[in-house]
Fold these 2 entries.
Entry 1:
Amino acid sequence: MRHLMSPLDFSVEELDKLLDLANDIEKYPEKYAHACAGKKLATCFYEPSTRTRLSFEAAMLNLGGSVLGFHSGDSSSASKGESVSDTIRVISCYADICAMRHPKEGAALVASSKSSIPVINAGDGGHQHPTQTLTDLLTIRSLKGRLDNITIGLCGDLKFGRTVHSLINALIRYENVKFVLISPEELRIPDYIREDVLKANNIEYVEMEHLEDAMPELDVLYMTRVQRERFFNEEDYIRLKDFYILTKSKMELAKDDMLVLHPLPRVNEISVEVDDDPRAAYFKQAQYGVYVRMALILTLLGIEV
Ligand code: CP
């Protein structure tokens, strides 16, 4: 039995296979319509979500399976003090696979150690968000045709943005990927990513504060929201929340084929006027999230079509 805690749980070859499967699902959805008949997915979300939870549920329904779950700690027996370990033991009696989001880093890992069904980390605190990374990789590979030889700008809250941490971990495994890390001083990437991931693997990266300076060289711009829920101090959040706003005029500085991605939800960091730009791919990205989660469910359940 396999779980998914980090994008590194899959080798590059396994990831390629997963992304190929997702592309096949996109092309021939009817082939997969009954692949999970009789199977149940539990979505155990202790933190709010729109895309991750609903795309997991859509994925299982598209595969002909069923879904059950809870959408907040308050609506589950966690509010009475039940531990994640006990909860997953019980969920294992009800479902065949579980996607779990939790505000505490490592919660999904704890669950996986007590589970008798595959557990998927659907976001653990500021740590990792591997299925968003699978979504991002599928989007980049499908729309740019490659995952190597790219310069990617990661912009915004690089300190608390778990999608950024997971994506860096995943992309360093491809040839000639350069990172431009664009953030205010207070929201720079954590030391463990800079030292243990980028420097330790001799990855080319630069840190800067001004988005405009980075724009002309980027193949992909990955915007992120300032993570209000992870700030200790509301004043700091208010000071930093509008530090970056991608506008039409800033888009004029970019390459004609640069992709704009965002894991969403967006707050102010991309002006709605950018949505009509053909380079804006963040809503397509959300659609790719369904295909890749379908591929992941099939892979972890060991179902071949
Ligand atoms: N991208 C993402 O994780 O969105 P949700 O928080 O809505 O799931």
Entry 2:
Amino acid sequence: MKRGLLIVVSGPSGCGKGTVLGSIVEEMGLCYSVSATTRSMREGEVDGVNYHYLTEEQFETLIAENKVLEYTTYCGNYYGTLRDEVEERRNNGQDVLLEIEVVGAANVKRLCPDAVLIFIAPPSVGELERRLRKRGTETDDVIASRVAEAEREIHCASQYDYLVVNGALEKAVSDVRSIINAERISASNKDEIISEVLNS
Ligand code: 5GP
């Protein structure tokens, strides 16, 4: 069985990555890895769907048991990718999608060099700020700190395999679709593809 891809997507808050991914996950048969976190559940979120919500003690036990592929602390909470969410599915041939921040993405690439890293950037920092203001859900202080964080994250974009600029949504969706299609037939999978062609 051909092992599934590990696709890692990062991008600053407000860059539209959720919208881009939402348009292709089902269509391309991708499987979201549900992360674990110690942050509290937000309204509308569901345990086991958005995250596995854990206590600090539970999270630290999983780390000690080597069940966490990568983890980081973000705004005072643990966030981590569970090994089982990724390994079982990839071994069953499913392509797994991680939506994680830049430190986690770099750790995944170190641990799984075959991971495909995609960074989704806004067309400009000014446009990102405009989108955050348009949401109307955050104070000026929070917007300023998100913009500063976005600038830090955008500096890390050069570590990624692909950089998609989300100016026009349709173009960004089509770029991500093309990346995944290309990776599915990439030369790094050639041995599996050749043996499939010869043996079926
Ligand atoms: P939020 O609290 O808004 O859901 O997520 C905060 C940040 O944590 C986002 O940038 C999100 O991509 C990141 N994140 C979510 N899950 C994981 C994870 O498993 N590992 C890492 N490293 N970051 C994560």
